[in-house]
Amino acid sequence: MDTFINLTPPACQRRYHPAEFKVQQIALCQQPGASVASVALELKNQKLTHELAYYRCIPFGAKTEAMSAEQLHLFEDDLAQDVAAVEAQFSPPCRCTAQD
Predict the structure, then answer these.
(1) Is 78 in contact with 84 (CB distance < 8 Å)?
(2) pTM above 0.70, yes or no
(3) CA–CA dist 47, 29 (Å, integer)
(4) Rounded CA separation 25/90 (Å)
(5) Is residue 81 over pLDDT 80?
């Protein structure tokens, strides 16, 4: 079964911005060398970056990353072997001398 993710934005809705946000945006626009367009563009870039991060996370939710019992057993076996190999590689060599 194919899964379809709808990426089209919902119908236009009136946006509500809190007073603190408006004050912050006005202060940014009043800085030397800043324009309303540059501040709006930066805000749009931040929104798109956040949205892109959200859509990248969707296919990798907790449900899709769950392991079956067999996969978990294989993972634990591989992990034990890898840990043993690393410990053998980094353990100090035995400098034992036989004394009679």
Answers:
(1) no
(2) no
(3) 18
(4) 56
(5) yes
